[in-house]
């Protein structure tokens, strides 16, 4: 399951941040969040079981579900509501084969942080497991993020060190799961991965216990970039339906400029030399949107937005 010292540090972190009590036996440490998410799907799903996902969403989710033999039940969410589920839409999609509901807050691609009330609405579905991708927790710039574990024990939480601690190359993530899944998660991980590297796990302990001042400073810098990017994009004519207050993305409505987000993103890359991600990459519900990232220096963000503004004014 991973070094006991690291799993205990994760328990301490979740108690301090969210007031939830978990045990080290409920945590699997793996080589990044992607294997942890795959193993969660393998533990939850039998062939043909269904998982509710939003549209738009992080595109790799569907691959983990399909690899575990599951089926996707998509819900197209609404930009004016921050692309957050309506409980009534979830109820319409649930069948006897629906095993899980996927959430991601703060969200990739939208940067939206789900409120306490929105998470409580998801937690009311007692027959399904909630799979909560919390990899961007800590990168929140207004009200604090809540963990789904504050509202239900029937949850699989995916988290790691790549985003909050900028440890992408270290490949360290973890899954928190209900107590009854401890043995099956351990067996799956042992057969696929054995363990994350020991020295990397010790680095994770150091990050959790010694890097909080650095994290706070990094979040402050991200927020400065976020506010600057939002202002510039809106001045250019992009529509921001709901202010993104987490992660490091802005999912901007570009329908004023284009109908085909893939072609527009390609043209911006080729002609303005600015990298943006087409909304269609995140599902049909993202068509007409472009995802911008502020995980770069303010100097480079200013240069990129200047180039984009020149491109759009031609």
Average of the residue pLDDT scores: 97
User: How much beta, percentage-wise?
Assistant: 15-25%
At the first level of CATH, the class of the largest domain is Alpha Beta
Q: CATH homologous superfamily of the largest domain - what is it? A: Type I PLP-dependent aspartate aminotransferase-like (Major domain)
What's the number of extended β-strand segments? 10
Strand order of the largest sheet: 1-7-6-5-4-2-3
Which stretches are low in confidence, meaning pLDDT under 50 for 5 or more residues running? Answer: none
> Termini separation (Å)?
56 Å
Short description:
The chain has 314 residues and is an alpha/beta fold. The chain contains ten helices and ten strands.
What does it look like?
The chain is an alpha/beta fold and 314 residues long. It folds into two domains: 4-210, Type I PLP-dependent aspartate aminotransferase-like (Major domain) (Aspartate Aminotransferase, domain 2), CATH 3.40.640.10; 213-312, Aspartate Aminotransferase, domain 1. 40% of the residues lie in helices and 16% in strands. It has ten helices and ten strands. A seven-stranded mixed β-sheet has the order 1-7-6-5-4-2-3, sandwiched between helices. It has a three-stranded antiparallel β-sheet with strand order 8-10-9, with helices on one face. Helix 3 links the parallel strand 2 (50-55) and strand 3 (71-76). Helix 8 packs parallel to helix 10 (298-312). The chain is globular.
């Amino acid at each position: 399951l991973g070094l006991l010292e690291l799993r205990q540090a994760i328990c301490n972190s979740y108690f301090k941040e969210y007031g939830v009590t978990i045990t080290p036996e409920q945590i699997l440490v793996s080589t990044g969040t992607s294997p942890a998410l795959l193993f969660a799907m393998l533990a939850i799903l039998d062939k043909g079981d269904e998982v509710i996902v939003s549209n738009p969403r992080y595109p790799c989710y569907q691959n983990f579900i399909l690899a575990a033999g599951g089926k996707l039940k998509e819900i197209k969410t609404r930009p004016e509501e921050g692309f957050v589920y309506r409980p009534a839409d979830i109820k319409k999609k649930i069948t006897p084969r629906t095993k899980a509901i996927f959430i991601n807050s703060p969200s990739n691609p939208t940067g939206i942080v789900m409120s306490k009330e929105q998470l409580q609405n998801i937690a009311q579905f007692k027959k399904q497991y909630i799979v909560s991708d919390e990899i961007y927790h800590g990168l929140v710039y207004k009200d604090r993020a809540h963990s789904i574990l504050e509202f239900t024990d029937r949850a699989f939480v995916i988290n790691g060190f790549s985003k909050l601690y900028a440890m992408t190359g270290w490949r360290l993530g973890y899954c928190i799961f209900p107590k009854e899944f401890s043995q099956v998660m351990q067996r799956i991980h042992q057969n696929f991965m054995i363990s994350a590297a020991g020295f990397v796990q010790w680095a994770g302990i150091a990050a959790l216990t010694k890097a909080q001042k650095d994290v706070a400073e990094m979040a402050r810098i991200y927020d400065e970039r976020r506010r600057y990017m939002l202002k510039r994009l809106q001045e250019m004519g992009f529509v921001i339906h709901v202010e993104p207050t987490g992660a490091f993305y802005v999912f901007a409505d570009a329908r004023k400029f284009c109908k085909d987000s893939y072609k527009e993103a390609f043209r911006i890359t080729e002609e303005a030399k600015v990298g943006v991600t087409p909304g269609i990459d995140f599902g049909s519900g993202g068509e007409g949107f472009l995802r911008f990232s502020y995980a770069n220096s303010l100097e480079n963000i200013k240069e990129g937005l200047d180039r984009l503004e020149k491109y759009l004014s031609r």
